[in-house]
Amino acid sequence: MKRPTIADIARRAGVTKSTVSFALNDRPGVSAATRDRILAIAREMGWQPSRAARALSGGRAGVLGLVVDRPARTLGIEPFFVQLIAGIESELAARDVALLLQMVEDRGAQPATYRRWWAERRVDGVFLVDLRLEDERVGLLAELGLPAVVVGGPEGCGGLPAVWNDEAEAVRAVVEYLAALGHRRIARVTGPPELRHTAARGTAFAAAAGALGVTTVEAATDYTGEEGARATRRLLAASAPPTAIVYDNDVMALAGLAVAAEMGVPVPGRLSVVAWDDSVLCRLVHPPLTAVGLDISSYGAEVARRLLDLVAGRPVESGCHAMPVLTPRGSTGPVPSGTVDAKPV
């Protein structure tokens, strides 16, 4: 079916294309009666403005962009991004703004994507996720003048506005909770170490453990269940295995729970498990997972509102959105009496 054009509307209305353009863009020079007739014909024919044409003529594209540097096969099963995108979309849909999602598996492809979007006027602004310790994207977006809001922070954002969550305080709460249960050997299965939020959690983890006299070990992964399972096997096969493991996402925590069962390590009898990103998955397994949770959809909506304000030319400040909350469930418990690391609670 052929899409209706301004020329089609002009022929139907018996006017020039310029008259139709003026009417559709609410510009002067067209009588009220003619404007109403043209608008009625446009609605009847199902005409919609071209976002690309509007952007090329100096207007806004009506599109915001999100580039995710993760394997496409993992995005659909990682609850954090699913909920974040849902929150973003809830805000954009109400404003008739589209979201352009680009998956890349090569870190170098991200700058090229931003440059192409900027040159083609494809997007009005972008969400910057997975901020890295050395992140060239921050300087590039500032150089291009492409509006951007960082989903994370506050460090390493340059002059870009950012929205973050107080994960350091949440990490301390987890370590203090496990220490109160008697755990003295706690492991953490992390995401990629080059990500700023991974490093921030690691700093808070080491500081909290040091203050409580807890021994720690960290195993870096790529957030996938496969890597989380391999890291768990290595930790549990060690000569002095941990009595508790904290995972940086719930996909890896679920994989770790399965490995513990495979290796005959009862949870929470001999091993306590804590997940990050408290999705519904944490409540559907047995035992249900103790988890650090946050209203991620609300977080997505908040960053969307700030980027929309930035695109509209309104002042936007950086700020903390919330502190994730620890919810104890059946996957954590006291260290069994007789265990070397047990501490009276």
Automatic annotation (TrEMBL):
Region (Disordered): 322-345
InterPro entries reported in the protein's UniProt record: HTH_LacI, LacI/GalR-like_sensor, Lambda_DNA-bd_dom_sf, Peripla_BP_I
Domain of life: Bacteria
Span of domain HTH lacI-type: 4-58
Matching SMART domains: HTH_LACI
Alphabetized UniProt keyword annotations: DNA-binding, Transcription, Transcription regulation
A molecular function (GO) term: DNA binding
PROSITE patterns reported in the protein's UniProt record: HTH_LACI_1, HTH_LACI_2
CDD domains: HTH_LacI, PBP1_LacI_sugar_binding-like
The protein's name: LacI family DNA-binding transcriptional regulator
Annotated organism of origin: Actinoallomurus liliacearum
Lineage: Bacteria, Bacillati, Actinomycetota, Actinomycetes, Streptosporangiales
